[in-house]
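User: I'm putting together notes for a lab meeting next week and I want to include a structural view of one of the chains we've been expressing. I don't have a solved structure, so I'd like a prediction I can at least talk through. The sequence is below, exactly as it appears in our construct file.
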Amino acid sequence: MQPVSHPDASLNCKGFTLIEMMVVVSLLGILVAVGVPSFRAMILQNRVTAVTNELVAALQFARSESIRTGANVMVCSTNDQATCSGVWTNGWVVRNAGGPLRVWPPAREGVAIAVPGTVTYTPLGNVTAARCFQLTLDVYQRFVGVSAGGRVATSANACP
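Assistant: Thanks for the context. Below is the predicted structure for the 160-residue chain, given as C-alpha cells.
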C-alpha cells in the first residue's frame, strides 16, 4: 500500500517571506540607532573611570610605602618615567629620595588630568598639602581628592 499524498504538499515550504525579513531588518536598524549613542557614552565613562582607578592605586601605593619605609614618598607627573617633570597626562611616578618606586604609563587618549603640584606622603601617612585631581574626557568628569590626613576618595560631582 502506498501512502496517500496531499494535493497541497508541494506548497508546504519552510522559510521567511520577504516582508518578514524586511520587518526584522528595520527593527534591528531601530535598535542599533538607539543603542549606539548610549554605548559610546558608556565607553567614555569607563575610560575616565579606568584612569581614575589607576591614579587612586598610585596614591594608595605611595601612602603605604611612606608608612612602610618611614620616609616621604611623592606622586608626581613625569615625562621621562624617572623624575618629576611634565604633565599628568604623560604618566606619573611614585618615588622617594632613592628614586622611582613605580611608574604609571600615560593616561588613555583624550583624558585630561588637572591638579596643582605633587602629592607628598609623610611617614605617618598624611600629606603635606591636600590635593584635588580633576579627570575629564569629553563631557565626563571624575574627581580624586586627597585629604590632609592622606585619605583618597573619588566622586563624579566635585572633590570629596
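A couple of points you could mention at the meeting. The radius of gyration is 28 Å. The mean pLDDT is 88.

User: Perfect, that's what I needed.
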